[in-house]
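Kindly review these tokens for lecture notes.

. . .
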Amino acid sequence: MNKIGFGAVVAMGAWLAAGTMAMAADAPAHGAQAVAAVDPFIGTGGEGHTFPGAVVPFGMIQLSPDTQIKPRKDAYGWAAGYRYDDRTIVGFSHTHFSGTGHSDLGDVLLMPIAGDVRLERGEPDKPGSGYTSRFRHDDERAEPGYYAVTLDDYGVRAELTAGARVGAHRYRFPQGKPAHVLIDLRTSMYDYPGKISWSRLRLRPDGTVTGFRETRGWAPGRQLYFALRFSRPLRGHAFHNTEQDIPYKGFPPPGEKDPAERAQIEGRQLVGSFDFGDDLREPLLVKVSISPVSEDGAIANLDAEMPGWDFDGVRAAARAQWAQALSAVEIDASEPMRKSFYTALYHSFMGPSLFMDSDGRYRGPDNGVHQAKGYTHYSTFSLWDTYRALHPLLTLVQPEQRTNDIVNSLLASRRESPYGVLPVWAFHGLETWCMIGYHAVPVIADAYMKGIRGYDADEALQAMVASANYGPYDGIRQYRELGYVPIDEEGEAASKTLEYAFDDWTIARMAESMGRADVAKEFGARAGNWRHAFDAKTGFMRARKRDGSFREPFDPSASGYGTDYTEGNAWQYSWYVPQDVAGLAKAHGGADKLLGRLDAVFDAKVDPKIFEHMEDITGLIGWYAHGNEPSHHVAYLYAYAGQPWRTQARLQQIMDSQYAPRPDGLAGNDDLGQMSAWYVFTALGFYPVAPGSNEYIIGRPFLPRAVLHLPNGKRFTVVANGLDADHPYIGAATLNGQPLDRAFLRHDELTAGGELRFTMQAEPNREWGTHPERQPYSISTAH
């Protein structure tokens, strides 16, 4: 049994307190106010798919309640493990995705039980049919780094907090009922036969419980190890393999030992219970660490991060970390806006997530163990989503080292990949090949163009080129041959052609900056491949066949697998040329024609039932679908086309209808922070339409005042004079006191510090930001 003397506990408490005080001292007062404004329940209803549990910024542990666990075919709505409308809790597991459209993780589920132990979850609508318990929102509390709830069926008050690699639980059991903690290694966010390849539970002589499991889920062959300790001695335990065992009913015969009391068990369907008697007068604490490497690695993580039992110290340290992170932006705003803004910033700081042990070891895409040297290793890269705004946001409001670590993690994954390419959609080190594009490329290029260079740039460019030329992947061989992806050989070909062309442009930008004229020339030419998808007759982007003809028949409203597009249709994807909006306008016959097409997107009367088969297409305004990423830049295109006041009006429409400070306040999956990063940028007044351009398109401010406390120690302030519901339009703008008559900012203007001041008015200013010689970057007009 693990025993730590009182002196060690006091010392640990002092160490945590000292560290927390240091972090708190570093965080300005507005950081604490920002933490108080966050509501982790935003996005847990509807299709936001966020979770309310305990996590620290970019932490490896996401300790949160799971309300239901569904078969694979029904799992979409429970991708984060928790839905606000549910009324039962299955338990508390230690790994979760924030806001994705795919279900997995949910590792190492614990459930405190008062009374009889049941080994199965039971049915949510049949109380007592299993170990699941009812709960009420009135008894819930969630804040950054902390979650608490009362399990009504047991009368147990459960509290959760977290460090980077350790989750801490505190359970208050009712007197007079046997106290147990159940561990279930069979569960995940979705279940299907054979998902658990193998698992192990082990009770060590000192009372530490360790184990592992390997799953065949979204990332096949994923291994996760854990170590667990209790603050009280065990009175007994039982390990079962429910695939084989028939557990004893009652007590074993006299003189015989219950086989469930074995010290170790292996199999595919493991569940265990730990018993603490019926006289617990103090709360029971449980601490759990995870490791991608080994059980010994998990023990080392536990010892390094939480050697004692100071739950409140860990909670305070988590809160201090959040105060420090959220203090990057200081705002003046109404309470609802403060709640929405800081919750969006909070959600933006959950991924990518730490993925290495305290000694720097991690598991790579080859499923081998590797050592991070000189950087912190991250995983969980939802790159099709996050390259658009999340990663550009991190370059502004997180220390530069964070982005350097992210780039180094991407490069390490490429070195360890059996395919020699950068991650596409990776979690826990493994590739899922989900979504399209090679969008690690713009993440690296955007960092490089902004002067973030703490990695081997030559290796980075080589990795980017290798990923862009990886022939077996999603039609790249044909794309290199033809200049487009042919639909008769590869699905979703129009989307792939458009996204490859953008990624290619970012390679050209970085190569040109590095003096690699050969690479810049090749990929600069490839950046124009979007033109092969443009159909001048219909005005839409379409997929061609190998013979060069467009696929017929053509229905611009068609979406779904087998169509020309990825999670969208022609109305949503035909504007995806962020690297050359001027060229797109010219292809349509001029800016006025493009403006008319954009109006047709937003003003259309669309029956939402047309997308009933597409769970990802949500947040409709006409054809515009804010709940899915291909639409996220579209409102800003009015500014490119010379009418920034139209961008301002559309952004008001989107902000009013797609975000709200309530559980169903996100129109679609948050997607590891992309929806939230869009909100943060838009509320501040500008947005990175084309990462890699070093420009931000000015929309309109939604905050009376905001201050970016930049990592370089400087401050960039945005002030909106006269802003209210009756004055939504920009009348004039100044940058550092000088008139600003263009609808974009440059990155170096932001990082230099200073003040951007808007004068807001009731009616549009149809002159501001329209000068034809002062328009945002496009390939067609670049000099």
